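User: Could you check the structure of this?
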Amino acid sequence: MAGRIRDEDIALVRERTSIAEIISDTVTLKSAGGGNLKGLCPFHDEKSPSFNVSPARNVWYCFGCGAGGDAIKFLMDAEHLSFVESVERLAARAGLQLRYVEDDRSAPRSNRPQQGQKQRLVAAHAAAVEFYTAQLGTAGARPAREFLAERGFDRAAAERYGCGFAPDGWDLLTKHLRQRGFSHDELVTAGLSRPARSGSLIDRFRRRLLWPIRDLTGDVIGFGARKLFADDDGPKYLNTPETPIYKKSHVLYGIDQAKREIAKQGRVVVVEGYTDVMACHLADVPTAVATCGTAFGADHIGVLRRLLLDTDAVAGEIIFTFDGDAAGQKAALRAFDDDQRFVGRTFIAVSPDNMDPCELRLAKGDLAVRDLVARREPLVDFALRHVISRYDLDTVDGRVEAMRRAAPLVAKLKDREKRPEYVRKLAGDLGMEIEPVQRAVLTAASGRPGDGPAPRPVQTEPSVDSPQSMVEREALKLALQEPVLAGPMFDAVEAGDYRHPVHVAVRAAVATAGGVTSAAGGAVWIEAVRDACDDLAAQALVGELAVEPLRIDGEPDLRYVSITMAQLQWGSVTARIRELKSRIQRINPVNNKDEYFAAFGELLSLEQHARALREQAAGGL
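Assistant: Sure, the predicted structure tokens are below.
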């Protein structure tokens, strides 16, 4: 039975992995200067990007939530993989063959290590895709092919989106996957099979058209299944149940194909179904995605905001398309409630003929789908018009009630500068004076939670206020980011010259990891220092310092290292001088002559050392 992965192979995976490529599958990254990249953190909700990536050192760190690490840690956190699963995923991507240390030397060697759960579930879905797509060409799948053809999708489109067919059999897929080596428990956990009343396993999907649902990286994690036969007593659409890899509140159909265009265009089009995504993509609206059997919610917003880089500085466009019927209008108003979670502008696109994108493309062609998106209107305009339309504005009661219902929508606008304009617009639409509408909006706004004073920021260790703390940080950054350059000069400065307790802990971890002189740098070195830290605060600081830019324009050199280390020592020495002067003032030279002159001699020596360090700090080498 295979044991742990060899340490040298793990180090090789870290070195051969481009962390920017791995993270770009999930987060849109922009240049942050100094060779670093920045984006919205995938691990907490934020409006200004604090998630930093250092491609040169293959590490990342979020200054907002304190998470950080290398590519292995990112996959563990972002995709809920184990350490082994993450290493195996990155090794496969880099084309590396991993070697394993056998835990039990008496056990027979295995050519292939036992895979982690997620990897097995993904592999089972990949095998299921092969099975279902092959079934689409069989005689029994004719209704599925006709369904696609009737909606304007040819064989090439079906292949592009991996469409398949679940045949008319109770356990055909189950038997196929069992023959491929997947266990009973794995098939049930994956949601591909389910126990029958007899206790045996049967397929979850039968006699249905299937769409594979992929995550951001392109792995199939579930299926959406469309009812085809009248005697099928199941729901119109049946989706994979919640599994360790399929969380419907996080999943967006088509995101794997749309993600790069979403990041490039700064726009996403949210549609309602699988065929709508296909229609939009084929009509040259490549940013379309859809939810999978659930309403559009906060987790979906988080995924899209990271791809849009939806920040105060970069505001994208979120365009919802809904049917014009009552259900579609209700969905649009629900989307407006989520509008405040986006920094970017939200729009709605409704076909004048109440057709969804798939129907529109079939009836009027690709250009009509593109025009639908181009004719979008601000979501707040649509929401106000919809609310007002429910009341008789020819009556006083109707106008007042419409004002009461519409005012909270204006009050919700995240861009406060737009509120006065919408107050005037609402007053005009209602045929009322501005003052009562303005009062209604102000009343609605005052009742909203969160309008109180902003909470005071929490001060976190380590403090960066003092010059000594700043130079300590700079010295540690040099050790982590430029170990080959910092080398002997860093190691020559004693740990006692660091004053802040967390800095002291990191300096001790550097020594425990072998010292800077022997370090090669990169993610392997940084992780070694992080692993050597005794407390969580020091571990977090290592991640932070690994990506924080150095306080120098251009590339650091030996002169800069010399100046930094001299400043570090000078700050420590001057602090000891102050302490020694205070001590000397407390000594009675008459009664304690020896102690007094010993302290005075030490003071002279320290002051001479301080002058030398000051000259070195001012002039460098």
